[in-house]
Amino acid sequence: MAVIRDVMPAFELLQPSSVADAQHLLARYGSDGWVLAGGLDSFDWLKDRIKKPKAVIDLSGIHELKGIRSTADGIEIGAMTTLTEVAQNPVIKQKYSLLSQSAELVASPQIRNQGTIGGNVSQDTRCWYYRGGWPCYRAGGNICYADTPVARNREHAILEAERCVAVNPSDTAPALIALDAKFVIRTAKGERVVDAEGYYVAPDRDITRLTILQAGDLLTAIRIPSAWAGAEFYFEKVRDRNVWDFPLLNVASAMFTSGNTIDKIRIAVNAAAARPLRLKKVEDAVRGKQRSAETGEIAGKLSVQGAVPLQFNAYKIPLMRNLVKRSITGVANGGQEAAWAS
Amino acid sequence: MPDPTDTRTTEHAAKKLSRRTFIKGVITSGIAVSSASYLFRASSVSGQGSSAAFGERLLTLSVNGQPRRVDVMKNETLAWTLRYKLGLTGTKLGCDRAECGSCTVLIDDVPHYACSVLTHTVRTRKVLTIEGLASPDGKLHPVQQGVVDEQGFQCAYCMPGFVMSAVGFLNTNPNPTRAQLAHGVSGNLCRCQDYDKILTSLMRGAEYMRRSGRA
Question: CB contact, 8 Å: A17 with chain B?
Fold first, then answer.
């Protein structure tokens, strides 16, 4: 697609200073309104003329959405807190370093300085057919351009594909699922708190959205309970370049062991499906087992059961098997020499 | 200049003009177009039907320590304002998609991609571009001096972005290892693939910064 080097088409810029004001504006503009957090996802849509909102509602002036607070049970992160702040916060580093690790691996320093945790977990898919404005299922049409004999689909889904084969690109989402985080959403009817897993939508439920956010809803905060504070964490992201790139696959795990036995564990992967996947079957299979290479093998094999490759993404199956295995054994297979071979 | 999209204005104006002044007007506006294409592009875009009143668009930005009065569209990025409204062309536009780093500026001392910031959102913040790094007496910033001394760049299109990223990073990490500094400026690309020399020159700049007590 041609790159347009001109200013974005005109829109009205609205800068509310409270969540209530933002909600009024969202209600007034309906589908003509666009929520702007850090803007790194938004500006691609607007600059490419794929989305043409009449009004952009900028949340950067709302102080109640910023900052990291300690609560009675854990911490609460405002949705407009930047990824740099999340990655560098001393409490998160000390107790929930899984989240700091994942935030530090997002995109580039400048993007982390501006991109927000709320935006990172709520961003849209990167499927270039969809983002290029093709009238695919996700855009309300009746075809998937990424799943045809000539389609380029190296980055697409191996699990849960249902007409649409796009994947969720967030790095922090699987970490938050592994930490059993809760997402706080402000709707027209009031506040709603959902599990991190429950925030995401598979295409068989709604093919046009990645999250449960409806028009007018705002994600206001993310709460991390203390239950997983100080657990053993593992995060790994595989991508083509060490900067900017979205994950080809990532994995996050949190684990408590006694001796060498796995007592409690949560594992999630992303970029395998249209939503970050919590691997509950794997968790159930390894709980109570020895933390060993054998257990890791079992976990890896179990994790890819039912995976269906497209023409160019079969590599993701052994990749996911190996990442899940490592997330149990806790040992990376050494930088460059990743064991991708099946 | 009358709004070209408003037919009432142009009809009304045409009636009032004599043939002679009309021709003169066409000639002058032709010159204006050819000599100030950036300005013309900006003004033609602003006529796209933004409902914003002029008053709301007139901002006072803090750029390089100076208050700058400037007329800014709501949909305008900071890179656009700096380059085409304020003439600060040291800030380069490479990809315009937050993927190359050549438009990096400091906003409240933190590196940002100016192509991906709406100018209206930095009204109350301090913007520092490559033009504002040197002292008023012309003495280069230590990082700039490091680049000069080590001849770090080839074509140097990416240089302002790299320097701004490095300055932002060194303000909070004054004594980095080479690997840490590489991570700090990893949001900038060099098309000449001159990374090794760039890092050498930025490390030299870091050293000068520590020596000058600016770090």
Answer: no
Contact between chains at B74 and A11 (C-beta distance less than 8 A) = yes
DSSP class of residue A211?
B
Quickly state the pLDDT bin for A86 (edges 50, 70, 90): very high
Which pLDDT belongs to residue B41?
43
Cα torsion for A301, A303, A307, A310, to the nearest 10°? -90
Q: How many residues in total does chain A contain?
A: 342
Integer angstrom CA distances of residue B196 from A335, A336, B119, B169, B199:
21, 20, 34, 18, 5
Q: What does pLDDT average to over chain A?
A: 95
Span between the terminal Cα atoms of chain A, in Å: 35
What residue in A sits closest to B57 (Cα-Cα)?
A: A13
Instruction: Tell me which chain B residues have a C-beta less than 8 angstroms from the C-beta of A111.
Output: 98, 113, 187
The answer to whether residues A219 and A275 belong to one domain is no
Is the CB of residue A8 less than 8 Å away from at least one CB of chain B?
yes
Mark yes or no for CB contact A113/B111 under 8 Å: yes
Contact B75 A15 (CB under 8 A): no
Judged by CB atoms closer than 8 Å, whether chains meet at B187 and A108 is answered as yes
**CB-based contact, B93 to chain A, within 8 Å:** yes
Q: Which tens digits make up the pLDDT trace of A218-277?
A: 999 999 999 999 999 999 999 999 999 999 999 999 999 999 999 999 999 999 999 999
Residue ranges of A 229-288 with Cβ closer than 8 A to chain B = 242-244
In-domain check, residue A113: yes
pLDDT in the model for residue B213: 84
Chosen CATH of B142-212 out of 3.40.50.20, 1.10.150.120, 3.30.230.10, 3.40.50.300: 1.10.150.120
Q: How far apart are CA A113 and CA A100, in angstroms?
A: 14
Which ipTM value was assigned to this complex? 0.94
Shared domain check, A236 and A106: no
Query: Which pLDDT tens digit goes with each residue over A174-231?
Result: 999 999 999 999 999 999 999 999 999 999 999 999 999 999 999 999 999 999 999 9
